[in-house]
Amino acid sequence: MKKSIIYIVIIAIIGIVLFVPGVKDFLKNQFFPIATIENAVHINEEDYDVELKGINAPNTNLKNFKNKAVFLNFWGTWCPPCRKEWPSIQKLYDSRKDHVDFVLVAMNDKEEDVRKFLKENNYTVPVYIAQSPLSEKILPKVFPTTFLLDKTGRILIKEDATKDWDSETVHQFIDNIIK
């Protein structure tokens, strides 16, 4: 009797993995994340060509960050979830700014509102406003949207929600990609 229950449970688990949409991909990403990285989207030369007006940093172009690890975040002062994750981004910046370039792009925002927000909160992470159109590959659909790009322009992380960026796993991930 016990053996038949065990067999039924095993068959049920296999059935769920094979036939319930998303379960197989979820398990694959949990146990085999390398496959996810190998199939990652790459940002190419044209995608990097975005003029950036510096708010608390010099004006630049995103292509100046090509061949570097980049923490690329799209946010707005008008966005409560964006504001919520700022303290963790600042902490990550303070501890990893020598290893990763930070580019935070304020979207649908007035320059004076961005300056006021940064000053009121003593944030020092480099913030820009895009002066030219963004590529579809990096154009955010929701806010905040964050990309972690490796030196080859491969998107290693794309987060379409608020996240605690000052976690040990994020620190370890960044330390691994800069090697």
Automatic annotation (TrEMBL):
Transmembrane regions: 6-23
GO BP annotation list: cytochrome complex assembly
InterPro entries in the cross-refs: Redoxin, Thioredoxin-like_sf, Thioredoxin_CS, Thioredoxin_domain, Thioredoxin_ResA/DsbE_sf
Cellular component terms (Gene Ontology): cell envelope
Domain of life: Bacteria
Location(s), subcellular: Cell envelope
Keywords on record: Cytochrome c-type biogenesis, Membrane, Redox-active center, Transmembrane, Transmembrane helix
Keyword Lipid metabolism applies: no
CDD domains according to UniProt: TlpA_like_family
Pfam family, any one: Redoxin
Domain Thioredoxin intervals: 34-179
GO terms, molecular function: oxidoreductase activity
Protein name, per record: TlpA family protein disulfide reductase
Upper lineage: Bacteria, Pseudomonadati, Bacteroidota, Flavobacteriia, Flavobacteriales
